[in-house]
Amino acid sequence: MQSSQQPWIPASFFPVSPLILVPEALGDFSVYLRQGREFVLYSRSGEKFTQHQRVKLFESGVDEVYVQTVEKPCFDEYLEENLGDILGDESLPVEERSRLFYDTSAGVIRDAFNEKLPPRLVEEKFNRVRAVVRQSTAFFRDERALRTVAPFIHHDYKSYTHSLQVFVYSVSLLATFELDEEEMYEYGLGAMLHDIGKTRIPSKILNKRGALTREERTLVQTHSVQGVAMCAGLDISQRTFNSILFHHERMDGKGYPSGIGGEDIPLAVRCITIADIYDALTSNRPYAPAMRPYDALILMRNEMATAIDLEAYKRFIKLLSGANMV
Which CATH superfamily is domain 82-322 in? Predict the structure, then answer.
């Protein structure tokens, strides 16, 4: 009788697919092969993993290599730096690329939303976010991407996971329009940073279980302006600023902070607004449980018809249906 237990791996090692080791990229971690219960050094830290080594492992039927747990921070940094090459590698299953995208991006965004971030590190954290966005927007032009990222979507609301998921929904929706790569990047960066201003709102207000007072609601509504202020000294385009500033504007002109409406709101920002609303509704928030996707979409249609761009909303429904998320 065959055992159903997972293969034994000591805590000092973790397995990775050799396909995610980018040829000629330098990694500050060693790679090991497993022989029974022994782990044998295959390539040393600081050496480039070559295409020849990759092919040799493939031809030998090796589908897992190992990295020491103590070197995981270096391995994570390697994934972050080479994310674009990994996401574009068709030899790696799209499901694996999606998992690596979500895990890698979540770590970067979590760091960016650290409320106690020293001022000297703000630009460094921003550059990491920018690099992740730059390397991953093209991936979401693939119709399979949203479907394979879907299993990793979190439904317990946190500012950083919400921002990452709004990015995923937004760039997937924007990919259905005729945007060039630079527009995708600039609006994708805006989607990722749209709620960065909430790091300046007291967490006791953001996490309050009951209804907010008028004063608390007014303070929360400053987060879009606060976000722009936080990014003012960074290398950000007007499209990105517009995404941060206007994502709570409404088509009927009843949004904030400026009260603009209709065509005055850039189309891409209207798409980010739809993604923002949908992800919030389908997440467990302190004051409301997560809604089912279908129910959230019905609520948006019935109660927000004058607030959102209905043509973009229809595209969004089609997108979610194609990804088996409704």
Answer: Hypothetical protein af1432 (1.10.3210.10)
